[in-house]
Amino acid sequence: MKVLVLNAGSSSIKYELFDMSERGALASGLLERIGEQRACLTHRLQEGANTHASVREGKVDDHREGFEWIADALGQSGGIANLEGLIGVGHRVVHGGEDFKAPAIIDAEVIDRIRGQIPLAPLHNPANLVGIEVAMASMPNVPHVAVFDTAFHQSIPRHAYLYALPYSLYEEHHVRRYGFHGTSHAFVAKRAARLLGRPLEELRLVILHLGNGASAAAVVNGRSIDTSMGMTPLEGLVMGTRSGDLDPAIIFFLSRATGLGNDELESMLNRDSGLKGISDQNDMRELLRLAESGDERAKLAIEVYSYRIRKYIGAYVAAMGGVDAVVFTAGIGENAGEIRARACSGLDALGIRIDPKRNATRGNEAREIQTDDGKAKVLVVPTDEELEIAEQTLDCIRRLSA
Ligand code: AMP
């Protein structure tokens, strides 16, 4: 019983093939630079605890040819890591707008509705759609399911999703908070409950997804009630290259002061801001190393980054009326103990206290890192967005056939 997960970007396709009876990955890979002179497919075959990687390079004209490369790689994997026994394909779709509150079996109507969300995600949804159309043509005999980044946050109440702008902008242009990283927050919430040995339905969680992109979510009884990313993934926490929250009047000020146009300002906020804007470096590993060697800008970037997280933890504890666990995930959340310590420093009044020794312990397993007397749990939980998409795909297919 296999499920293939596909994440199609404008010039790349990420994939992972799961055996759903074991919940384990059989093979995965990334095809990059579609449409350029030299595309590169890195294919990883899982054999027990061992991973065998292979690389193929050459020209790949479009996504259709890209899928042929991926199907070839899976076919040549032999053994069990091919598409035999495939029961469905799960597609990551970035924006489902207000239309999609759950995964959907893809048909012509669903494709139209995803197309309808393009104004909200002009870069991502068209690439996701190309992936869907090509994959459906290549694998027509299994159901294809769309799993949306935004769906988990559709439970956010209107007082938390509405911006204080003229109401007509919400009605006519759908301007509101949507939130992203939904599959990661959903996955991590379930794993956190399992680690705590308590039902998800009675937990108040602050989840901090700290990767290159970063977002916080307040999750009550398994439902998102607020999240830091907004109408787009630019709002909220400081990120690798994205500014996160800022005074909107800065944009008008900069437009007048520098003469930069909308596109240039948008690019600056998305690509040249955040950690990179402050310190010229967006990789947290490198920043921690630079800070250790005395680099003042690196130290400043880390301070601004951690302080923003701390503010969001406080805000979400207030929004939830208390907290049972603060959960760290993704590249930085899972690996950077120093950032976890800084983000939780000074939060004793909220019952949040990290144990330095537990925090310094490394590992790939979900774990608790609070002090023995800390009222709130503090957890490190590795995320797996692809496995969550596979699980949601399987659920959706089972509901269809029930
Ligand atoms: P992601 O987008 O989840 O892959 O996360 C990428 C971010 O995680 C980058 O800023 C990396 O520098 C950071 N990261 C990965 N491993 C570590 C580590 N061991 N220590 C600190 N940061 C890390």
Task: Please describe what this structure looks like.
- The chain is an alpha/beta fold.
- The chain has 2 domains: 2-148, Nucleotidyltransferase, domain 5 (2-Layer Sandwich); 198-385, 2-Layer Sandwich (Nucleotidyltransferase, domain 5).
- Helix content is 40%, strand content 21%.
- The chain has 15 helices and 14 strands.
- The chain has helices at 63-76, 108-116, 124-138, 158-161, 167-173, 182-196, 249-258, 262-271, 274-279, 284-292, 296-320, 330-335, 337-344, 356-360, 385-401, and strands at 2-8, 13-19, 24-32, 39-47, 50-58, 86-93, 104-105, 144-148, 204-210, 214-220, 223-227, 325-329, 367-368, 377-380.
- Strand 3 and strand 4 form a beta hairpin.
- Helix 10 packs across helix 11 and helix 11 (296-320) packs across helix 13 (337-344).
- The two termini are 17 Å apart.
- The model has no long low-confidence stretch (mean pLDDT 95).
The ordered string of helix (H) and strand (E) elements is EEEEEHEEHHEHHHEEEHHHHHEHHHEEH
Indicate the low-confidence ranges by residue numbers. none
Q: What is the typical, i.e. mean, pLDDT?
A: 95
Q: Which structural class should the secondary elements be placed in?
A: alpha/beta
The CATH class of the largest domain is Alpha Beta
What's the number of extended β-strand segments? 14
